Amino acid sequence: MEELLTLKDLLIKGDIKGSLTIVEELVEMGRKDIIKTIRSYGVILLLHLIKQKAENRTTRSWDISIRNSVLEIQEENKRSESGGFYLPPEELNLVLESAYRQAINKASLEVAEGRYEVRELEQLVNKQELINLAMNLITQIEESTEG
Prior knowledge:
This protein is mainly alpha-helical. Helices cover 80% and strands 0% of the residues.
C-alpha cells in the first residue's frame, strides 16, 4: 500500500498534518471495504429472502445461505478492539437498501425459473418488509453472539 509508505515518510519528516491526512484516507478506504463486503452479503441475504417470499417456500440451501450471510455481515460489522459496530443500524439499513436493487435483479433470474421480469417480481414482494426482516435477522444474531 502506497499510502503506508507515504505515511512512514511523513512521520519520519515530522509532518503530523500530512500524516493525519493519510491516516484519514486509510480509515476511509477501510470503511469503504467493510461497506462493500457487507453490501455483497446483503445482496445474498436479500436474494434468498425475496425467493422465499415470492415462491412462498424455502429450501435448506436458502436457509443456510441466509444464516451464513447474516453471520458474515455481523462478523464484518463488528469492531474487534473497541467493541461496537462499524455501521450503526441506520447506516446498515441504507446499505441493505442499496443492495436490494441487485438482489431483486438476481432474483428475477431465479424465482420460478426466471419467469418474472424485475417489475413483476417487485409486485410480489414488499421491499421494506424484506429489508426490515433482514435487519431483524442481523440484530437477532448480533444479540445472541454477545455475552
